Amino acid sequence: MNITRIVLLSVVALLLPAAAHAQGRTAHKDAYLYFVWPQDGTVIKGAFWARFGLRNMGVTHAGDDFDNAGHHHLLIDVNSPLDAEEPIPQDKNHLHFGAGQTEARIELPPGKHTLQLVLGDAKHYPFKPPVVSKKITITVR
Amino acid sequence: MPGEIYHIRPGRDGSHPTNESPRRLAAILAADISGYSRLMAMDEEGTHARVKRHRRELIDPAIIEYHGRLVKSTGDGFLAMFDSPVEAVRCAIVIQQSMVGRNAALARDQWIQYRIGVNLGDVIVEPEDIYGDGVNIAARLEGIADPGDVFISGGVYEQVKHKLVCGYQSLGDRQVKNITDPVRVYRVLPDPAAVVKARRTPGLAFAVIMGVSLIASAAAATATWYFFVRQPQYLAAGRAPEPKPSTNLVTAAPPQGAPAAKPQTQSSTAPAQPPAVAAPPAQPQVAAVPPAQPPATQAISEPEMVTVPAGTFAMGSNDDATEKPIHQVRIKSFAIGKYPITVREWNQCVAAKACTNKATGKDDAPVTNVSWNDAQQFTEWLSGVTKKQYRLPTEAEWEYAARGGTQTKYWWGDQPVSGMANCKGCNEPYDATQPLKVGSFKPNPFGLYDMGGGVSQWVTDCWHKTYQAAPTDGSGWLDSECSARVIRSGSWKNDHNYVRPSNRDNYDANVRYPTHGFRVARSP
To answer: Is the peptide bond before B255 cis (omega within 30 degrees of 0)?
Structure first.
């Protein structure tokens, strides 16, 4: 009886986090997301290519549900905090790279802008814990 | 009252009645109650009493108010004539809008809904009746009108289009029974302006009074009125189980030996389709729509389509770099889904093993999490099953349809108004987790729902970041290869800025996202 209870409890204990984490896969502990270019403080004239770097995890197509892999999202001038329980929004400030792109041609109006990368899982949810780059500020002339 | 026809004067001078021609030009209004026999079967005395009350309190006063004359009344309808087509159409709108208010408090199956046709024609006036093609055409227009709708002929349209501020949807030329030449048909679209006119009629009905008090307060309140009072009627016309032979009924190839084709009434409340045998007693209302297709073994419900008239419009705006430059685009007439494709419609394709991605959500919710490629699967399947050429709309068609003939920032004006679209920060309460069911808001002047907000909608075109060198003939703008396609409308997760008809965005064609859906189009 006792054993059964322990087994049951441990099964429940195992399932609970799984249920709670139905959205958002677990990130690699050493995952590191960053901008290859531009860097914080870069001053740019006109359109530019942004290049995304990722260490210890892989880039894949959105919809592919592999461990340890995700796709890039570029957040431009986003100030609201990231909601880990919701898919990464899709709008003009949240660009998706679901085809597995690791670079993008970006054109922004003149002025200061912030850029930040967020890795999303197959269903566009942030990983747990979120894999995000440092938020950088660039100036477009 | 019929006797009054004796005294109609042909406009000039009535002092020589003996010389008067029995012929005259008149606007004829024909109306009948949709599903009258069903209502009578359900509750004969009650229905009769209600119809009589409507006649006494609403219809007779409205006809007098608009300087018309009741020619005759039948059990389930009436015929009236007016000197002026403008007055005739006004009268029709007032009756329809007032009936909405009267029905609002009742169960759906007890609604009394009129279908109204208005025609301008030469008629022969006799003491107890009027005769002639002009009358017959009005009756035919009434016959093809949807419950709660007003259909007018081209002749009436020409007379009222610049005088009555409401929308008119061209339904093209229709061949009507026993009339040699096809008749151009327009549907009168409800519009807040119509309510403003209606208020000139004192004490007509609940809906009108209510509309007036709200209009007096604010435009936003008008929207609310539409949402709460007007909406049920739209839902009824479009979605609710009005027992008419459904034009949506399409027969599919016979994979399963299912029982004979059964009209699939689309219930917005029932969680599932009632089993065929347990379906409510079929009420074939003759002549409401052209006869349904011949029986076959399996029926699918085809998306409800609206024919959009040909026209030219200014596409784009100066609100965003992607929407420039504004350019003139010529659009041929085409048909577009009245609503985005629903979960129910989508899952028919999944059941047929033609679509791979089973949709989740309520049956009446728009399908979400579909990629452009998924949408292609659906249109191919639907075209195959229906033998019609379904496709995605082109970007230009989508914007033209979304504008509904307007050139303002939103189809209802230049300001965001709450209660007009399913978007973030646009309405209270707001459910961030899922889209509202299709058709939850007021349709635009073309009678299309959810063209802005709800779900983002895929269109044919490859993504181009501006309109530089865009086609001007309404065709899709395609490249030999493109990974990103255009999405329109904004979703319930985007703010009102995305609801603008000119707003455009793009997404990878082979990637699914939980706010992306689509609607279908078809060339005539």
So the answer is: no
The structural domains of chain A, ordered by start, are 24-140 (2.60.40.10)
Is B507 in Cβ contact with A96 (below 8 Å)? yes
Partner B contacted by A100 (CB < 8 A): no
Between CA B28 and CA B31, with CA B30 as vertex, the angle to 5 degrees is: 150
Using the beta-carbon criterion (under 8 Å), do A92 and B505 form an inter-chain contact? yes
Domain B2-238 has CATH 3.60.15.10: no
* B456–A61 CB contact, under 8 Å: no
Extract the tokens encoding B460.
Answer: 């044919």
Residues B217, B195: Cα–Cα separation, whole Å: 14
Question: CA nearest B9: which of B25, B27, B32?
Answer: B25
The secondary element (H helix, E strand) that includes residue B193 is: helix B192-198
Query: Using a CB-CB distance cutoff of 8 angstroms, which residues of chain A are in contact with residue B506?
Result: none
Mutate to test the interface with B, among A78, A92, A93, A108 (most CBs of B within 10 A): A92
- pLDDT tens, residue by residue, A56-102: 999 999 998 888 999 999 999 999 999 989 999 999 999 999 999 99
Cα A39 from Cα A48, distance rounded (Å):
12
Task: Please give the C-alpha separations between residue B74 and each of B16, B32, B70, B510, in angstroms, as whole numbers.
Answer: 32, 9, 11, 59
Residue position matching structure tokens 């004979």 = B260
Peptide bond into B325 cis (omega under 30): yes
Whether the full predicted model's pTM is greater than 0.80, yes or no, is no
Residues of B with CB under 8 A from a CB of A: 320-321, 432, 456, 465, 483, 491, 493-494, 498, 505, 507-508, 510-516
Q: Where are the domains of chain B?
A: 2-238, 305-522
CATH match for B305-522 among 1.10.10.10, 3.90.1580.10, 3.40.50.2020, 3.90.550.10: 3.90.1580.10
Q: At B143, is the secondary structure helix, strand, or coil?
A: helix
Contact A90 B515 (CB under 8 A): yes
Q: Give percent of chain A above pLDDT 70.
A: 84
List of residues 6+ apart from B506 with CB closer than 8 A: B463, B484, B485, B486, B487
User: CA B46 to CA B415: how far, in whole Å?
Assistant: 46
CA distance A133 to A136: 9
Distance CA B502, CA B396 (A): 10
Q: Is the peptide bond before B147 cis (omega within 30 degrees of 0)?
A: no
The ipTM assigned to this model is 0.85
